[in-house]
Structure to design on (306 residues):
């Protein structure tokens, strides 16, 4: 039995299938054999109806990747908007996940939103910094396939900006130049009294800590805090203005690794009035119905196949 699919270049089908079927999409089954000919991919069935069903899913996924690549090539102004899902694939935990919520409540006695709030930072700085240092700093994290692909697309002149909700600086580490960090960056620190700026390494040096927990400014003795936007604090108006301008002018907006449930950042999508909206996320989002292309998959896996 054979499965026929018109996919243009059959060699591309073969390469993509090799990627798809070695990712354990068909555990225990033999890799389908692709026979070249006439611009069609003729794929030998792996046996049974289950094999064909999985094969159909694989081809559908490949078609989505092909469509995404075409949209990027055709667009004259592309912007990427990313959330926590981009960073979790680099091993950075999402504090809003079920595991994060459980840990926060049972280990620290508060929800993540409370622990990362301006109020708790002022009232219980020891607890704030303990949680922050133990949960939001991942110095060993490296850019993943999504970060690297976005940097490469930008370098080729096909991506105008990255707008991120993450604070880890991995987009810049991958080589992206135009990055708008909506929630700031934990790579930057500053004294709340004199404004002196510090690096992340400064607050990780125990010799700069008061009571072994709170970072102290070497210039004035004030508290050194991360340059991130805490709950109950406003987003940087200049960053928001720039992000809105980029989204408004975009022809193609790719949104990835976010459930679009965190406001006000998620509200930025209402400024998009371009031609194509693409959503890449493992689960559904409130904007799926409005997108021209929706891919429910790992964002790193998607970009790795572009």
């Amino acid at each position: 039995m054979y499965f026929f699919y018109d996919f243009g270049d059959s060699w591309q089908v073969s390469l993509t299938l090799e990627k798809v079927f070695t990712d354990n999409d068909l555990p225990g089954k033999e890799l389908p054999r692709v026979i070249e000919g006439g611009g069609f991919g003729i794929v030998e069935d792996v046996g049974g109806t289950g094999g064909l069903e999985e094969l159909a899913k694989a081809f559908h996924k490949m078609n989505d990747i092909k469509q995404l690549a075409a949209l990027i090539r055709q667009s004259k102004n592309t912007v990427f908007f990313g959330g926590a899902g981009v960073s979790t694939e680099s091993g950075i935990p999402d504090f809003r996940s079920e595991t994060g919520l459980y840990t926060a409540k049972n280990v620290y006695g508060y929800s993540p939103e409370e622990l990362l709030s301006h109020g708790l930072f002022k009232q219980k700085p020891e607890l704030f910094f303990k949680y922050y240092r133990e949960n939001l700093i991942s110095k060993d994290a490296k850019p993943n396939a999504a970060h690297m692909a976005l940097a490469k697309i930008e370098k080729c002149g096909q991506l105008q900006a990255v707008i991120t909700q993450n604070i880890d600086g991995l987009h810049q580490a991958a080589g992206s130049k135009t990055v708008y960090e909506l929630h700031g960056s934990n790579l930057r620190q500053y004294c709340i009294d004199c404004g002196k700026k510090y690096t992340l390494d400064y607050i990780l040096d125990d010799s700069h800590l008061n009571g072994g927990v709170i970072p102290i400014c070497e210039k004035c003795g004030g508290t050194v805090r991360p340059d991130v936007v805490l709950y109950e604090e406003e987003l940087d108006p200049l960053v928001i203005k720039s992000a809105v301008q980029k989204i408004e002018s975009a022809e193609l907006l790719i949104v990835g690794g976010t459930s679009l449930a965190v406001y006000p950042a998620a509200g930025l999508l209402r400024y998009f009035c371009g031609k194509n909206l693409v959503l890449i996320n493992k689960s559904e989002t409130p904007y799926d119905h409005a997108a021209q292309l929706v891919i429910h998959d790992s964002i790193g896996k998607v970009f790795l196949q572009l």
In short: The first helix runs from residue 10 to 21. Residues 2-70 form one domain. Confidence is low (pLDDT under 50) at residues 1-50. The chain has four domains: 2-70, 76-89+141-183+235-304, 93-137, 185-228.
